[in-house]
Write a structure and sequence with these properties.
2 helices, 2 domains, alpha+beta, SH3 type barrels, single chain, globular, about 35% helix
């Protein structure tokens, strides 16, 4: 741990207890009605920006539904993303999400360029 940049800079050990394994199974606490399930099975996909919690992919929902939850139980030994059935089942969903992200990024870049051109023309 002494070779991490933060520990070298500060001289203190870094707390890595909140770091989780990407793609592992997780159960997000579900506060619902009395007879509803208490947890939802998810896959850990990262950390949200500006929010304390974990980004989780709800596999039980159709499509790609992502939730953010603070109350999560992780199963580090179970990696559902590595199973071939999950890859085949959701490969079209994942491809469509990547295409959507790419087109959104292109649209944002073109929108920013047109805003810059409009600002320079008005001056």
């Amino acid at each position: 741990m002494a070779n991490l940049p933060e520990s070298v800079w500060t001289g203190k050990n870094v707390d890595l207890s909140s770091i989780r394994i990407f793609g592992c199974s997780a159960f997000a606490l579900n506060i619902g009605d009395k007879l509803d399930p208490r947890a939802q099975k998810c896959i850990f996909i990262g950390y949200p920006v500006g929010v304390k919690g974990y980004r989780l992919w709800l596999r039980s929902q159709p499509g790609f539904k992502v939730i953010i939850s603070r109350d999560v139980y992780f199963q580090r030994n179970e990696m559902p993303c590595l199973s071939s059935s999950l890859k085949n089942q959701h490969s079209s969903d994942i491809d469509s999400i990547f295409n959507k992200v790419e087109t959104d990024q292109i649209d944002n870049q073109q929108g920013e360029e047109s805003e810059i051109e409009e600002k320079t023309k008005s001056r």
